[in-house]
Specification:
With 205 residues, the chain is of the alpha+beta class. The protein is built from seven helices and four strands. The chain has a four-stranded mixed sheet, covered by helices on one side. The chain is globular and about 50 Å long. The two termini are 18 Å apart.
Length: 205
């Protein structure tokens, strides 16, 4: 199988961490694409993912799967004997899904919007609106507050054990560096959790 990615991008990193935690990283050949050079915009890649985004998993039979969670769900189902990260029961699966979506909507999207509208990185693709970017920076800070409060009473994000919700949150918190935001002493519980996540081998893949 082939995994098309850009290693420093947060969503491909989520997939690599997921595979590393499950002991399945050796099941894929990682193929690096340079998004700044438009290697994801070629007709060949568009055939694999019409959304022209990474990551994309190409199965041995030629089937291509886009979207981070879709890829993770494939590996969870295809390798049931590996570590379970998406939940064992209906309740666990629902709680993990809830937290994954909260992080996506209330942290990842604001960081991305702030990045797009307060830096020059996308100046050739969009008309940046600085005020919108700053509004999203404030939303990011608010969700950091929310996570910090939650983690005062919990060791992990969703369940009382490591799950893909922790992977999503960790990679997204790391992504905040693009808007010059780091977890610091303003959020002691979030910072302690973040440091625990950094100690995991999967965080280094």
């Amino acid at each position: 199988m082939k995994l098309y990615e850009m290693a420093k991008a947060p969503n491909p990193r989520r997939v690599r961490m997921f595979l590393a935690e499950k002991g399945l990283l050796d099941k894929v050949d990682c193929i690096e694409l340079n998004l700044s050079k438009g290697e994801n915009l070629t007709p060949e890649f568009e055939q694999k993912n019409p959304m022209k985004k990474v990551p994309v998993l190409e199965l041995d039979n030629g089937t291509c799967i886009g979207e981070t969670m879709a890829i993770c769900r494939y590996f969870e189902a295809a390798f049931p004997d590996s570590e379970t990260l998406l939940g064992n029961t209906a309740e666990e699966q629902a709680i993990i899904e809830q937290w994954t979506r909260w992080v996506d909507f209330y942290l990842f999207l604001p960081i991305g919007n702030c990045f797009q509208h307060t830096t020059d990185y996308f100046k050739h693709r969009i008309n940046p609106i600085k005020e919108w970017g700053e509004t999203n920076r404030e939303a990011t800070l608010n969700f950091f507050d929310f996570l910090n409060k939650h983690l005062a009473e919990h060791q992990f994000v969703a369940l009382e054990r490591f799950t893909t919700a922790d992977i999503n949150a960790f990679c997204t918190v790391d992504f905040a560096k693009v808007i010059q935001l780091r977890v610091d002493d303003r959020w002691p519980n979030l910072k302690a959790w973040y440091e625990r996540m950094k100690e995991r081998d999967s965080s280094k893949v």
